[in-house]
Amino acid sequence: MKTDIQIAQEAKMQHITEIADKAGIDREGLELYGNYKAKLSDACVKGKARKGKLILVTAINPTPAGEGKTTVSVGLTDAMALRGHNVIAALREPSLGPVFGIKGGAAGGGYSQVVPMEDLNLHFTGDIHAITAANNLLAAMVDNHIYFGNELGFDLKNITWKRCLDMNDRQLRSVIDGNGKRTDGVTRQDGFDITAASEIMAVLCLSRDINDLKERLGSIVVGYTREGKAILARQINAQGAMCALLKDALKPNLVQTLIGTPVLIHGGPFANIAHGCNSIIATDYALKLADYCVTEAGFGADLGAEKFLDIKCRTAGFFPNACVLVATVRALKSHGGVAKADLSLPNLEALNRGLGNLGKHIENLTGVYKLPVVVAINRFASDTKEEIDAVAAYCESYGIKAIDSNVWGEGGKGALELADEVVRLCDIGSGEASFSYSVHSSIKEKIEAVAKRVYGASGVSFSALALKSIETLEKNGYSGLPICIAKTQYSLSDDPALLARPEGFTVSVANVRLSAGAGFAVVLTGEIMTMPGLPKVPAATNIDVTEDGVISGLF
C-alpha cells in the first residue's frame, strides 16, 4: 500500500495559474510562490459579493487518531468538482508541532489530498513563521518596557503574554528568563506556547482586513497592573510593527487537490484554546469566487463546530447552508468501550453502545443550530457491511442520511453520493444563523448554555479562581464577548473517560482567560496544554530527505 507522501509525489500538479483560472481569479490578485503556490490579494475579489453556499465538515468525538475530517473535506470537494460544480475548499494550515510529533502530515490522506503536500506540511509560504515573529516582537517590547522603567505599572506576577515557537517542546513550557547581568533584562517567570495556540493566530484568522487586524493586535491584553487593570499592546505601540510583519501572512494561500480542484489554505488556530478554523478572509474569498465552499472545523462538533458557528460565523456574518458530520465505525466502537488494539474487529454490540455520541451531535446540529445534516461514514478497510448498515439505520431514525464514503482509497469518486446529498441539502438550507447563546448574556450564562445545550451537562461548577477571573473581565468591560471553551476533545463532557453520550455530569470551570484581540473569552475546564511535547518516538524520526531533495516519511 502506498503512503500518503508517495501518492502525493506521484501527482502531476497543474501550474498554479491554471488553478487560478479555474477559480476565476484575476492575475492581478495572484502573487506567485513558485509554480504550485500563490497568495491572493483582495484584488481577486474586488467588487464581488458572496454568492457561494457554505458547507461545514465536522465530526463526532474522535479517537486519538482523528476521524479523517480533512480527508473527507478534500474528497467531498473533488467529488463536487467531478459533478461539474464550481467549488473551492477552505482549510487550515498544519502546525509543525504535530507534523514532527505524533500525527504526521495534515493535508488529507490517500487519494484525497492537497498538494504540494511537503510544502504544506513544512514551511509553506511562511505564514506561521510570521505569526511567531509578531508574537515574539510583542513579548520583547513588553519586557523592554519593563526594563526601561515600567511606566505602565506591569505586575511582574501577572504578565499574560508568552513567547511562542511552532514546535512541540515541553522544555519551554515554563522558564525563568532575564537571567545574567542587569543589562540582560528583568528576571521573571515566563513560558512558551506553540504558535498555533498564540492569540495572534486567532487574531489573524478572525480579522476581516488589514485595518481590522491592526485594531485587534492593539487590543491584545499583555498583562495587568497590581490594581487589576488590563494593559494593552497598543499602550506600548506594538500594533503597527506586528501588523507590518503580518501583512503578507494575512493573504490566503492558493493550492490544489490531487485532481486540480482549487483549495485555499490559511491559518491554523488550536481548536481548544482558540476556535479551530481557517481564516474568515479565506472563507470569504471562497464564497465570492465559487458556488460552493467546503470548510472544516477542528476536533468534534462539540468543540470545532460550536466555535465555528458561535464565534467565527457570528464575527464574519455568514452561516452554513449544510453540514457534513463525519463518523467512523472505529470511533463509534471506541465510544462503546472497545480498546484501540481491537477496533478492527467486528463488534456490533459495542458499535450500538457508541451510537449515542453520534446522536447527540446530530441533535445539536439540527436542533440547536438548525442545520441540514448528512453523516459521512469515513470507511476503513476493517468495517463490515453490518456495521455500516447499523450506522445508516441509526441515522435514518433521525430522518437523515448516512452515506458510506471511501475517499482515502478512491478520492472524489468515493464521495459522489455524498456530494449529491450535500448539494441537495444546500438547496434547502437557508444559511440563516442560529446560535447556542446570546452574546448579551453574562459570561456565566454563556458557559452554562454551551455546557447544557451542546455538551448535555446537568450543570456547571466554577472554581474560586474562575469566578474572580470573570469578575476581572467584567470589570474591564469584556462581558459581551463570545466564549471559547477549552476542554477534552475525546468526550462530550470535560472528562475524557466519559465516552459515548454521558448524562448527569457537571462541567468544572477552572479559570477564564481573555483573548481580547481575538474577541473571545477562553474558558478552561482543566489543564489545557498550549505547548505540547514530543512522544517517545516522534514522527520526526521517520522523516528524511535524499541528496536530490526528495522528502520521505512525511506520513
Characterize the largest beta sheet: strand count, sense, and whether it forms a barrel: 12 strands, mixed
Q: What is the 3D form?
A: globular
The number of helices is: 18
Low-confidence stretches: none
Q: State the helical fraction.
A: 25-40%
Structural class: alpha/beta
Strand composition percent: 15-25%
Rg to the nearest angstrom?
Answer: 23 Å
- Number of extended strands: 26
* Mean model confidence by pLDDT: 94
- Distance linking N and C termini: 13 Å
Tell me the layout of helices and strands.
Blueprint: H1 4-10, H2 16-22, E1 30-32, E2 38-40, E3 53-59, H3 69-82, E4 87-91, H4 96-100, E5 108-109, E6 112-115, H5 117-121, H6 127-147, E7 154-159, E8 163-165, E9 175-177, E10 188-190, E11 192-194, H7 199-206, H8 210-218, E12 221-225, E13 230-232, H9 239-246, E14 253-257, E15 262-265, H10 280-289, E16 292-296, H11 301-316, E17 322-327, H12 329-335, H13 348-368, E18 373-378, H14 385-396, E19 402-405, H15 407-410, H16 416-428, H17 443-455, E20 459-462, H18 464-475, E21 483-486, E22 506-509, E23 511-515, E24 520-524, E25 544-545, E26 551-552
Parallel strand pairs: 3-16, 3-17, 4-15, 4-16, 8-11, 17-18, 18-19, 20-22, 21-24
Antiparallel strand pairs: 1-2, 2-14, 5-6, 6-14, 7-12, 9-10, 12-13, 14-15, 23-24, 25-26
Helix pairs in contact: 3-16, 6-7, 6-9, 8-9, 12-13, 13-14
